Write a sequence for this structure.
């Protein structure tokens, strides 16, 4: 009887997990497999496996459209904005975690509360600011916007990571005459690596998939990013599902691969503290 009571909850748990996995990955796998089919095969047998592996749709997308340029633009703005953000917000998270100063909690709350502000409500002031600065319709302007968008999430993760590091390490470093930069860069930053990696990955994926500001702030093809190009492909390949799915596959695979590689580090940032033992 006790065995039955243990088996039923486990069976139910595994069933829920398997069901969740299937409904999560099935749309992605369906898009990937459909990119190797013809239009006729997709319409007649949408859930069947492709009869053969054919890369003609991928070849067409890259040869007839500036897909490589769109990918490079997305990579540039995502990587640059992530690197700059991590440098700035890791220092800010360290200060909020380790130092006391007037209005500390108020300032932190104001930074974090920006998560609740819809992007549409910030569109007009951001658009006007970039025009006045002369960097509208440039990758530089889009990078600045992405840096600001990652503030709340990054501060929340990094502050908690630095707060988990014992204050005794900073006290010992101060006795030895360490400066602010030395304590941050040589002691605290390496110990907060799980939080840093997590913030970096989440920020990169957010910037890689961001569409609203990319479509609002860029108008020329030379600065078009992949999410904006996706809308273009939706219109261009409205009746050519094979090429549309090939474009979708190229866009979504990098984010999936990056997270798959680093998912263990992301999980550790929520499960472990800055110091072990």
């Amino acid at each position: 009887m006790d065995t039955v009571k243990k088996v039923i909850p486990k069976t139910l748990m595994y069933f829920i997990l398997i069901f969740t996995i299937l409904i999560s990955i099935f749309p992605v796998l369906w898009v990937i497999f459909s990119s190797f089919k013809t239009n006729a095969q997709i319409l007649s047998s949408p859930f069947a496996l492709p009869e053969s592996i054919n890369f003609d749709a991928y070849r067409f997308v890259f040869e007839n459209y500036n897909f490589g340029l769109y990918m490079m633009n997305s990579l540039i703005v995502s990587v640059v904005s992530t690197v700059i953000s991590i440098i700035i917000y890791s220092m800010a998270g360290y200060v909020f975690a380790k130092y006391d100063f007037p209005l500390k909690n108020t300032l932190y709350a104001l930074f974090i509360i920006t998560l609740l502000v819809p992007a549409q409500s910030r569109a007009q002031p951001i658009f006007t600011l970039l025009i006045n600065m002369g960097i509208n319709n440039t990758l530089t302007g889009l990078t600045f916007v992405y840096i600001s968008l990652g503030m709340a999430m990054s501060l929340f993760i990094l502050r908690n990571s630095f707060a988990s590091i014992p204050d005794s390490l900073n006290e010992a470093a101060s006795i030895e005459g360490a400066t602010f930069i030395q304590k941050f860069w040589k002691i605290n930053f390496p110990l907060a690596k799980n939080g840093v990696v997590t913030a970096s990955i989440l920020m990169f994926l957010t910037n890689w998939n961001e569409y609203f500001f990319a479509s609002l702030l860029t108008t020329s093809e030379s600065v078009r990013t992949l999410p904006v190009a996706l809308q273009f492909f939706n219109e261009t390949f409205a009746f050519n599902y094979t090429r549309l799915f090939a474009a979708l596959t190229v866009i979504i695979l990098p984010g999936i691969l990056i997270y798959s590689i680093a998912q263990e580090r992301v999980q550790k940032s929520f499960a472990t503290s800055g110091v072990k033992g």
The chain has one domain: 64-271. The domain at 64-271 is CATH 1.10.3720.10 (MetI-like fold). The two ends are 41 Å apart (CA to CA).
